[in-house]
Design goal:
Number of strands: 2
Strand content: under 5%
Distance between the termini: 28 Å
Number of helices: 9
Largest sheet: 2 strands, antiparallel
Strand order of the largest sheet: 1-2
Shape: globular
Helix content: over 70%
Protein backbone atom coordinates (compact mmCIF):
# COMPACT_ATOMS: atom_id res chain seq x y z
CA UNK A 1 0.00 0.00 0.00
CA UNK A 2 1.32 3.41 -0.89
CA UNK A 3 0.70 5.46 2.23
CA UNK A 4 0.78 9.20 2.95
CA UNK A 5 4.40 9.04 4.08
CA UNK A 6 5.46 7.43 0.80
CA UNK A 7 3.49 10.02 -1.18
CA UNK A 8 5.16 12.85 0.72
CA UNK A 9 8.61 11.30 0.23
CA UNK A 10 7.91 10.73 -3.48
CA UNK A 11 6.87 14.38 -3.89
CA UNK A 12 10.03 15.60 -2.12
CA UNK A 13 12.15 13.26 -4.23
CA UNK A 14 10.37 14.30 -7.43
CA UNK A 15 11.00 17.99 -6.72
CA UNK A 16 14.68 17.21 -6.06
CA UNK A 17 14.90 15.11 -9.23
CA UNK A 18 13.56 18.06 -11.23
CA UNK A 19 16.06 20.38 -9.58
CA UNK A 20 18.95 17.95 -10.19
CA UNK A 21 17.93 17.17 -13.77
CA UNK A 22 17.15 13.50 -13.09
CA UNK A 23 13.75 14.13 -14.66
CA UNK A 24 13.03 17.00 -17.03
CA UNK A 25 9.98 18.72 -18.45
CA UNK A 26 10.27 17.44 -21.98
CA UNK A 27 8.13 15.90 -24.68
CA UNK A 28 9.79 13.39 -26.96
CA UNK A 29 7.44 11.48 -29.24
CA UNK A 30 10.21 9.27 -30.64
CA UNK A 31 11.23 8.14 -27.15
CA UNK A 32 7.58 7.69 -26.15
CA UNK A 33 6.95 5.42 -29.13
CA UNK A 34 10.16 3.48 -28.36
CA UNK A 35 9.07 2.95 -24.76
CA UNK A 36 5.64 1.82 -25.93
CA UNK A 37 7.18 -0.63 -28.41
CA UNK A 38 9.59 -1.95 -25.76
CA UNK A 39 6.72 -2.39 -23.28
CA UNK A 40 4.74 -4.45 -25.76
CA UNK A 41 7.79 -6.48 -26.78
CA UNK A 42 8.78 -7.18 -23.17
CA UNK A 43 5.27 -8.34 -22.32
CA UNK A 44 5.12 -10.51 -25.44
CA UNK A 45 8.49 -12.10 -24.61
CA UNK A 46 7.34 -12.75 -21.04
CA UNK A 47 4.25 -14.48 -22.44
CA UNK A 48 6.42 -16.62 -24.73
CA UNK A 49 8.81 -17.49 -21.89
CA UNK A 50 5.83 -18.64 -19.83
CA UNK A 51 5.15 -21.44 -22.31
CA UNK A 52 8.81 -22.23 -22.97
CA UNK A 53 9.98 -25.71 -22.00
CA UNK A 54 13.09 -24.03 -20.54
CA UNK A 55 10.91 -22.58 -17.74
CA UNK A 56 12.91 -19.34 -17.40
CA UNK A 57 10.98 -17.96 -14.42
CA UNK A 58 13.56 -15.30 -13.55
CA UNK A 59 13.31 -13.87 -17.06
CA UNK A 60 9.52 -13.84 -16.92
CA UNK A 61 9.73 -11.71 -13.77
CA UNK A 62 12.37 -9.42 -15.29
CA UNK A 63 10.53 -9.03 -18.61
CA UNK A 64 7.22 -8.43 -16.83
CA UNK A 65 8.79 -5.71 -14.70
CA UNK A 66 10.39 -4.07 -17.73
CA UNK A 67 7.10 -4.03 -19.62
CA UNK A 68 5.74 -2.01 -16.69
CA UNK A 69 8.81 0.22 -16.54
CA UNK A 70 8.66 1.01 -20.26
CA UNK A 71 4.92 1.74 -20.36
CA UNK A 72 5.29 3.92 -17.26
CA UNK A 73 7.95 5.97 -19.02
CA UNK A 74 5.76 6.25 -22.12
CA UNK A 75 3.02 7.71 -19.92
CA UNK A 76 5.47 10.06 -18.20
CA UNK A 77 6.55 11.32 -21.63
CA UNK A 78 2.91 11.78 -22.59
CA UNK A 79 2.58 13.95 -19.48
CA UNK A 80 5.65 15.93 -20.55
CA UNK A 81 8.37 14.40 -18.35
CA UNK A 82 11.50 12.55 -19.47
CA UNK A 83 13.59 10.55 -17.03
CA UNK A 84 17.38 10.69 -17.18
CA UNK A 85 19.76 7.76 -16.94
CA UNK A 86 20.68 7.95 -13.24
CA UNK A 87 18.57 6.04 -10.70
CA UNK A 88 15.94 5.86 -13.42
CA UNK A 89 13.88 3.11 -11.77
CA UNK A 90 13.47 5.09 -8.53
CA UNK A 91 12.80 8.29 -10.47
CA UNK A 92 10.13 6.49 -12.50
CA UNK A 93 8.53 5.03 -9.39
CA UNK A 94 8.37 8.38 -7.59
CA UNK A 95 7.15 10.16 -10.73
CA UNK A 96 4.33 7.62 -11.06
CA UNK A 97 3.25 8.32 -7.50
CA UNK A 98 3.36 12.10 -8.00
CA UNK A 99 2.05 12.43 -11.56
CA UNK A 100 -0.06 9.36 -12.25
CA UNK A 101 -1.45 8.26 -8.88
CA UNK A 102 -4.70 10.13 -9.31
CA UNK A 103 -5.09 8.99 -12.91
CA UNK A 104 -5.15 5.25 -12.23
CA UNK A 105 -6.12 2.96 -9.40
CA UNK A 106 -3.69 2.89 -6.48
CA UNK A 107 -3.34 -0.88 -6.72
CA UNK A 108 -1.58 -0.67 -10.08
CA UNK A 109 1.25 1.40 -8.64
CA UNK A 110 1.55 -1.10 -5.83
CA UNK A 111 1.83 -3.89 -8.39
CA UNK A 112 4.68 -1.98 -10.08
CA UNK A 113 6.47 -1.78 -6.73
CA UNK A 114 5.81 -5.45 -5.94
CA UNK A 115 7.09 -6.58 -9.35
CA UNK A 116 10.21 -4.47 -8.90
CA UNK A 117 10.78 -6.01 -5.47
CA UNK A 118 10.22 -9.55 -6.80
CA UNK A 119 12.73 -8.95 -9.59
CA UNK A 120 15.28 -7.54 -7.17
CA UNK A 121 14.71 -10.36 -4.67
CA UNK A 122 15.17 -13.02 -7.31
CA UNK A 123 18.10 -11.38 -9.09
CA UNK A 124 20.17 -10.33 -6.07
CA UNK A 125 22.05 -12.58 -3.71
CA UNK A 126 24.15 -11.60 -0.70
CA UNK A 127 27.90 -12.02 -1.17
CA UNK A 128 28.08 -14.35 1.85
CA UNK A 129 25.52 -16.64 0.26
CA UNK A 130 27.42 -16.70 -3.02
CA UNK A 131 30.65 -17.67 -1.27
CA UNK A 132 28.82 -20.20 0.89
CA UNK A 133 27.06 -21.79 -2.05
CA UNK A 134 30.26 -21.93 -4.07
CA UNK A 135 32.31 -23.53 -1.31
CA UNK A 136 29.64 -26.10 -0.46
CA UNK A 137 28.53 -27.05 -3.93
CA UNK A 138 30.13 -25.60 -7.01
CA UNK A 139 27.03 -26.00 -9.13
CA UNK A 140 24.80 -23.83 -6.94
CA UNK A 141 24.48 -20.38 -8.51
CA UNK A 142 21.78 -18.42 -6.77
CA UNK A 143 19.14 -18.32 -4.10
CA UNK A 144 16.47 -18.27 -6.82
CA UNK A 145 17.59 -21.58 -8.22
CA UNK A 146 18.14 -23.44 -4.98
CA UNK A 147 16.01 -21.98 -2.22
CA UNK A 148 12.78 -21.69 -4.15
CA UNK A 149 10.95 -24.70 -5.43
CA UNK A 150 9.98 -24.83 -9.07
CA UNK A 151 6.38 -24.25 -8.00
CA UNK A 152 7.25 -21.06 -6.11
CA UNK A 153 9.35 -19.79 -9.02
CA UNK A 154 6.44 -20.44 -11.38
CA UNK A 155 3.99 -18.73 -9.03
CA UNK A 156 6.19 -15.61 -8.82
CA UNK A 157 6.56 -15.58 -12.60
CA UNK A 158 2.78 -15.96 -13.07
CA UNK A 159 2.09 -13.18 -10.57
CA UNK A 160 4.58 -10.84 -12.22
CA UNK A 161 3.15 -11.49 -15.66
CA UNK A 162 -0.43 -10.98 -14.44
CA UNK A 163 0.53 -7.71 -12.77
CA UNK A 164 2.37 -6.53 -15.86
CA UNK A 165 -0.60 -7.31 -18.13
CA UNK A 166 -2.98 -5.33 -15.93
CA UNK A 167 -0.52 -2.48 -15.43
CA UNK A 168 0.12 -2.14 -19.16
CA UNK A 169 -3.62 -2.15 -19.92
CA UNK A 170 -4.32 0.56 -17.35
CA UNK A 171 -1.35 2.70 -18.40
CA UNK A 172 -2.34 2.46 -22.07
CA UNK A 173 -5.64 4.08 -21.12
CA UNK A 174 -3.61 7.22 -20.39
CA UNK A 175 -2.11 7.31 -23.89
CA UNK A 176 -4.05 9.04 -26.67
CA UNK A 177 -3.66 6.31 -29.28
CA UNK A 178 -5.43 3.81 -27.00
CA UNK A 179 -8.24 5.95 -25.57
CA UNK A 180 -10.79 5.26 -28.37
CA UNK A 181 -10.26 1.48 -28.16
CA UNK A 182 -10.92 1.43 -24.43
CA UNK A 183 -13.99 3.63 -24.72
CA UNK A 184 -15.45 1.16 -27.24
CA UNK A 185 -14.61 -1.75 -24.93
CA UNK A 186 -12.12 -3.34 -27.32
CA UNK A 187 -9.21 -5.39 -26.01
CA UNK A 188 -5.58 -4.70 -26.81
Amino acid sequence: MIDAKQKKEAKQNFDKYLQDGLIKKEKNETARQMYLKNAELSLQLAEECMISPLRPHLWIVVLSYYSMFYIANAVLLQLGYKTGSKIVHKVTSDALIVLVMDKIRKGLLEEYEDAKEDALEIASVKSEEIIGFYSMEMDKRSRFQYNMTETIQEQKANTSLKRAREFVIEMKKLLPEFKPAFKRGESL
